[in-house]
Specification:
With 293 residues, the chain is of the alpha+beta class. The chain has 2 domains: 2-116, Rossmann fold, CATH 3.40.50.10330; 129-285, Tumour Suppressor Smad4 (Sandwich), CATH 2.60.200.40. 28% of the residues lie in helices and 35% in strands. The chain contains 9 helices and 15 strands. The protein has helices at 21-30, 47-55, 66-78, 95-100, 106-115, 143-146, 149-155, 157-167, 227-238, and strands at residues 2-8, 33-39, 59-64, 85-89, 118-126, 129-131, 134-138, 174-180, 183-195, 217-223, 249-254, 256-261, 266-269, 272-276, 279-291. The strands form 2 sheets. Strands 5, 6, 7, 8, 9, 10, 11, 12, 13, 14 and 15 form an 11-stranded antiparallel beta sheet that branches. Helix 3 links the parallel strand 3 and strand 4 (85-89).
Length: 293
């Protein structure tokens, strides 16, 4: 039988994935695959690497949110472990899986995994850490780190929105200096994101012409503007319409970005706390093999 590792985060989303374990084991057994189960813990360093090496599996399935995927990808690449990764979305946010459309029909996706159908995708890298989907900083970025885990598990994405509404009075623009493949930009912005896919914060099609295998990342900054303009951009995002051509948005495609600002500003990588600005971000082309239909 084909051996596959299933990594699951017991607290992702509504902490209900464990109720689907038996169903998944049965489904993969029917497809001639054996699942070797790894339950994530507070510190997976070392233990996870040893488990993967001893399992001698052909691929790895990651069940959790974007943060779980982020952790597993970093553990694999830092250890020099090369194997295809499947994304079983079960967290509060599963943006990369949504972009690839791989969790819309789970039965078909299981067939894809069993058949070994994959594609290579780019990753971003900042301060020695890989990110799968997005690096960001500015207003809203800190909210993911401030939302209580119990509240997030109970309320899902609504927890972020409720927290965000409470932060509106504190929104401030920050001065940004951006160097993209050697070209320099200066602006005041409420926030910026550097994205690998066009799905961010569960909002689809945030920018046009975004690809995960073109060797480039996309920088989008929401410039300092009036509340009316900001609400218009927000409405476009919620309606799944690209904002990359809006007057209040700066959109740049490049393989390397350097972003700096005044004061202490924390970045975010795939929903997890990242390094302080200044931030140097590089594209790592076609480094991750993903099971994909």
């Amino acid at each position: 039988m084909k051996r596959l590792i299933l990594v699951y985060n017991p607290v992702s989303g509504h902490a209900t994935f464990k109720n689907r374990l038996d169903w998944m084991i049965e489904e993969f057994q029917k497809r001639g695959c054996m699942l070797l189960i790894y339950r994530t813990q507070k510190d997976n360093t070392g233990v996870f690497e040893e488990f993967v090496r001893e399992a001698q599996a052909e691929g790895i399935l990651v069940a959790g949110g974007d943060g779980t995927l982020h952790e597993v990808v970093n553990l694999l690449l830092r250890a020099g472990l090369s194997m295809p990764v499947a994304i079983i979305g079960s967290g509060t946010s599963n943006d990369f899986a949504s972009y690839l459309g791989i969790n819309e029909d789970m039965e078909a996706y299981f067939d894809c995994i069993a058949a070994g159908k994959t594609r290579l995708v780019d990753l971003g890298k900042a301060a020695g850490e890989y990110f799968v989907n997005v690096a960001s900083a500015g207003m809203m970025t800190s909210i993911a780190h401030e939302v209580d885990v119990r509240f997030k598990n109970a309320m899902g994405k609504m927890a972020y929105y409720l927290k965000g509404l409470g932060e509106l009075p504190r929104f401030r623009a920050m001065p940004l200096k951006v160097i993209a493949d050697g070209r320099e930009y200066h602006l005041e912005a409420f926030l910026f994101v550097i994205i690998n896919s066009s799905v961010v914060g569960s909002m689809r099609n945030v920018a046009a012409e975004v690809r995960v295998d073109d060797g480039k990342l996309d920088f989008l900054a929401v410039k300092k503007c009036s509340v009316t303009e900001l609400m218009k951009i927000t409405a476009e995002l919620i309606s799944s319409r690209p904002v990359s051509s809006e007057n209040g948005v700066l959109h740049i495609q490049a393989s390397r970005f350097e972003v700096s600002t005044a004061g202490d500003v924390l970045s975010d990588l795939d929903g997890e706390a990242g390094p302080m600005l200044p931030l140097c971000v590089e594209t790592v082309p076609r480094v991750l093999e993903v099971y994909c239909m």
